[in-house]
Amino acid sequence: MQTIRTETRDRVAVIRLNRPDALNALNRATAQDIAEAAEGFEKHPAIGCIVVLGSDKAFAAGADIKEMHPAGFREMIRDDWFATWDRFTAIRIPTIAAVNGYALGGGCELAMMCDIILAGDGARFGQPEIGLGVMPGMGGTQRLTRLIGKSKAMELCLTGRMMDAQEAERIGLVARIFPAERLEEEALSMAAAIAQRSRLSTMILKESIQRADEGSLSEGLLFERRLFQAMFALEDQKEGMAAYLEKRAARFERD
Ligand code: CAA
Fold it and tell me: 49 φ, ψ to 5°?
C-alpha cells in the first residue's frame, strides 16, 4: 500500500498515513487502503484495537484538493465519492485517532470516524471547506454537530477557522491531550489496555455507544454526501480549489 504504512504491536494495529508531501491529504487510494487495512485487522482475532496516526506536522490536511478539483457532479455521483469511508466506520473493533498537527476537513472527519480522538498539545482542528466553495463531505456536518452541538458546529464550519487542541478538548471533540512527543506512545498504551479486554465485549460495547450517538446518522451522511457531490456542479467549487492550488485568494460568484 502506497498511501499508508501498517504494523502490529502485540494486540494493537497501527495505520500510519504516509503522504508526507501532501500533508497526508486523503485521496481515493488512501480511503481504499485504510478500509482494506482496517478490514484485514478486524478479521484477525488477535487484534483488539486500531490506532490511526499521521505525522508530526499533519494527521491529515483534508480530502485531496488536487484530485477533487477537476471532478464534476457526474463523476462525484457516479463513483459515489467518499462512500469508501463507510467501510472504515463499519469496523467493529475499537479505533483511536491520535492527532498531531493539522486535522482539517476530511482529516478532522477521519478523526471523528474513530471512536476516541487523542491529540498532541499542538494539534489544530477545523472544517475549512467553505473557503474552497464547498462544505464538509465525509461526515463533518453530521458528526461534528452531534459531538459539539449546533451553534459551535455552525461557527466552525461557516467561518472555516482552526481551533487548537485545548479548545477541541473543552468542547468534547477530543478525549485527552498529551505532549506532542508522547502522543504516539500514550495512544498505543491506551489501545493496548483496550485490546487486553474481551474482544467481543469491546465490540458489543462500541456498538451500543454508537446506537446512542447515531439515530438517523446514516440518512444524514447520505444527504450530506449527495450535497457535497452536487457542489461539483458549481463554478465556485472550481474557483475555490483553483485558487487554493494557484496560491491566490478565491473570487466567488456573488448572487
Ligand atoms: N489536498 C491536496 N494537497 C494538499 C492539501 C489538500 N487538502 N493540503 C495540503 N496539501 C499540499 C499543498 O498543496 C502542498 O503541496 P505543494 O508543495 O505541491 O504546493 C503541500 O501539501 C504542503 O502544504 P503547504 O505548503 O500548504 O503547507 P503549509 O504548512 O504552508 O500549510 C495548511 C498547511 C494550512 C494545512 C495548508 O496546506 C492548507 O490550508 N491545506 C488545505 C486545507 C483544506 O482546505 N482542507 C480541506 C480539503 S476539502 C475536504 O476535506 C472536503 C471534505 O470534507 C472531505
Answer: -165, 145
255 pLDDT higher than 70: no
**Cα(210) to centroid(ligand 1), Å:** 31
Three-class SS of 71-90? CCHHHHHHCCCCCCHHHHHC
At residue 137, the pLDDT reads 97
Residue bearing the bigger pLDDT, 254 or 130: 130
CA dihedral (247, 132, 242, 239) positive or negative = negative
Listed in sequence order, the residues at least 6 apart from 246 whose beta carbon sits closer than 8 Å to its beta carbon are none
- Greatest C-alpha distance within the chain: 57
DSSP code of residue 114: S
Active site residues: 63, 106, 109, 129
Interval between CA 245 and ligand 1 midpoint (Å):
9
What is the rounded CA–CA span in Å between residue 114 and residue 95? 5
